[in-house]
Design brief:
The protein is built from 16 helices and 20 strands. With 550 residues, the chain is α/β, with parallel strands linked by helices. The strands form 5 sheets. Strands 1, 2, 3, 4, 5, 6, 17 and 18 form an 8-stranded mixed sheet that branches. A hairpin with a 2-residue loop joins strand 14 and strand 15. The structure holds flavin-adenine dinucleotide (FAD) and NADP nicotinamide-adenine-dinucleotide phosphate (NAP). The site of flavin-adenine dinucleotide (FAD) has 37 residues, from helix 1, helix 2 and helix 13.
């Protein structure tokens, strides 16, 4: 390839790689590129690093994968040094960790903050990307890596009158940086996904009155969060080689945990119940891995869902409220399962009311109230916990033009099409981290991020070492992969839910199951095999003849 530009080329605003986004994906990508001596520029629309943890500052925000595992593994010194305070670190601590990583690995000088990437265009003659940013400038790069995040495009719902509301309106995914004090206020929370479920118990403690507007009840498992003891931290630190290996290679979801060896119907009622009870007491996401068929067998799934519904009925004192809170329109786990701290118990408080907007939808928001079912619920503040245009939303906001001027939005109009979730045919040298078609949001995302970054970095070095100009997914390989992703999804119960995995939360978005459900271990193996076979299914310029000959 025309030699990858040297460090000196920086002044000409030309880089080996432009990375979009400075969350965990963009930060690690930059570090890897530094290690490999590549020039890189990261553009981040926020004013700091951390991505998700920079934007989602709502009360109660914390991770749902345990912190000793929801953390980078690429540096043993880092994982030995960093002290997570709780089983699930709160947002400020995760953001502090991201900032620590940025400083520790000298990332900041190559990140341009407060700068959104608006357009990226591939010049087919020069084999170079032109990237235009919100400050009106254009830089060029051999490669573009989209580290734009799967849950980074907060979705404001289209509710009549919302803009005319006189009080404050907040979105969980775009929370202010200054503290928000709900003391003495009447607050509405709209939305009961993971964000709403984390925020409700905390806001309930402050607000004079909290009204929760629920369209769909969700399954939620207690987090059982607690301070981490020194022994617990020590155990992880000593066992990290095996914990991380297992999470990468053997786990489906990138989490170190026991693997189930039997299905739910292989146990009798009492045995099954006691296993569910034990997991409920333990808390956390691994509740779903007690049996190996909960995601594929409806009868098995029902036993698990019934258990959780019973728990809700035990916790919530008012039977009518309990019934409304019991999910009944999707298999447990087919939407991202929520992890909570005293969510259901919050509805026992005298200052918390649940409003069912499934049967009585929100009609409009007036200057001082949410109107639903003909009734005005007067509030001082509204919290929108209404989620994201997930997986494709942030990519779609960028005007990306590949070969023949085709835009990525045109290509993905009927749903995202990628090969391995990493590249899309017709868009050479453009990579996506944790893109649709990869395990991504179905996993401990740091495991998936590290895997993609390592793969992309290896690939770019492979090209540099061989003087290759371009790399592009082959259309037939992509078609086969898209079909495979779809086929695997439909062997499970997942597509039964109107979830954001399916694009179902955004009106008009194509209904495609976007992430790859084959598991992080098998997926990693596929990616490694593709690379070992000289990037099978991709075309690297200059190699076509050799490939054809072989
Ligand atoms: P992000 O962290 O989303 O970073 C992407 C960055 O790109 C953002 O900062 C954004 O501003 C920037 N960007 C986007 N478009 C542009 C553009 N055009 N120009 C410039 N910059 C741009 N996952 C887990 O595995 N475990 C968890 O416990 C967990 N908890 C979560 C809690 C919340 C509240 C949310 C919303 C998500 C959670 N996730 C969790 C998923 C989480 O998004 C990932 O774990 C991870 O943080 C994603 O990192 P990322 O770098 O890929 O994306
Ligand atoms: P979400 O799961 O998409 O939930 C959005 C909620 O808003 C749903 O209850 C939805 O109802 C409701 N809603 C959307 N539009 C509405 C409208 N117009 N009127 C009324 N209600 C509306 O979004 P999220 O809670 O932000 O979570 C997104 C993902 O981020 C999670 O699944 C998870 O992966 C991640 N996350 C993780 C954590 C954590 O625990 N670490 C915390 C937050 C987020 P319907 O279901 O009926 O559409």
């Amino acid at each position: 390839m025309a030699a990858l530009q040297s460090v000196a080329a920086k002044s000409a605003a030309s880089y080996d790689v432009v990375v979009v986004g400075a969350g965990f994906a963009g930060m690690y990508m930059l570090h890897k590129l530094h290690v490999q001596g590549m020039t890189a520029r990261v553009f981040e629309q926020g004013s700091g690093v951390g991505g998700t943890w920079y934007w989602n500052r709502y009360p109660g925000a914390r991770c749902d994968v345990e912190s000793m595992q929801y953390s980078y593994s690429f540096s043993d010194e880092l994982q030995q040094d960093w002290n997570w305070s709780e089983r699930y670190a709160p947002q400020p601590e995760i953001l502090a960790y991201a900032n620590h990583v940025a400083d520790r690995f000298n990332l900041r000088s190559d990140i341009q903050f407060d700068t959104g990437v608006e357009r990226a265009e591939f010049d087919e003659r020069a084999n170079i990307w032109s990237v235009t940013t919100s400050d009106g400038k254009t830089v060029t790069a051999k490669f573009v890596v989209l580290a734009t995040g799967c849950l980074s495009n907060a979705r404001k719902p289209d509710i009549k009158g919302l803009d005319a509301f006189k009080g404050k309106v907040y979105h969980t995914g775009h929370w202010p940086h200054e503290p928000v004090d709900f003391c003495g206020q009447r607050v509405a929370v709209i939305g009961t996904g993971s964000s709403g479920i984390q925020a409700v118990p905390v806001i309930a403690e402050q607000a004079r009155q909290l009204t929760v507007f629920q369209r769909t009840a969700n399954f939620s498992i207690p987090a059982r969060n607690a301070a981490l003891t020194e022994e617990e931290r020590k155990w992880f630190r000593q066992n990290y080689p095996e914990v991380r290996r297992f999470a990468r290679e053997e786990a489906r979801a990138g989490i170190y945990t026991e693997m189930p060896d039997r299905g739910a119907l292989d146990d009798g009622d009492n045995e099954r119940r006691s296993k569910y009870e034990a997991r409920w007491q333990r808390g956390g996401l691994t509740f779903m891995s007690v049996y190996n068929n909960l995601g594929i067998d409806q009868t098995a799934n029902d036993t698990d869902a019934d258990f959780v519904r019973e728990k809700i009925a035990e916790i919530v004192k008012d039977p009518e409220t309990a019934k409304l809170l019991q999910p009944n329109n999707h298999p447990i786990g087919s939407k991202r399962i929520c992890i909570d701290t005293e969510y259901f118990a919050a509805f026992n408080r005298p200052n918390v009311t649940l409003v069912d907007i499934k049967s009585n939808p929100i009609e409009e928001i007036t200057s001082n109230a949410v109107r639903a079912g003909g009734k005005d619920y007067e509030v001082d503040a509204i919290v929108l916990a209404t989620g994201f245009d997930a997986m494709t939303g942030s990519v779609a906001k960028i005007d990306i033009r590949g070969r023949n001027g085709q835009t990525l939005n045109q290509k993905w109009a009927e749903g995202p099409k990628t090969y391995l979730g990493l590249m899309s045919a017709g868009f050479p040298n453009l990579f996506v981290i944790t893109g649709p078609g990869s395990p991504s949001v179905l996993s401990n995302m740091i495991v998936s991020i590290e895997q993609h970054v390592d793969w992309i970095a290896d690939c770019v070095v492979y090209m540099r070492d061989r003087g290759l100009e371009t790399m592009e997914a082959n259309k037939d390989a992509e078609d086969k992969w898209v079909a495979h992703v779809n086929e695997v999804a439909y062997t499970t119960l997942y597509p039964q839910a109107n979830s954001w995995y399916m694009g179902a939360n955004v009106p008009g978005k194509p209904r495609i199951f976007m992430p790859y459900i084959g598991g992080v271990g098998p997926y990693r193996q596929i990616c490694n095999e593709v690379a070992a076979k000289g990037y099978e299914g991709f075309t690297m310029a200059g190699t076509e003849r050799a490939r054809a000959a072989s």
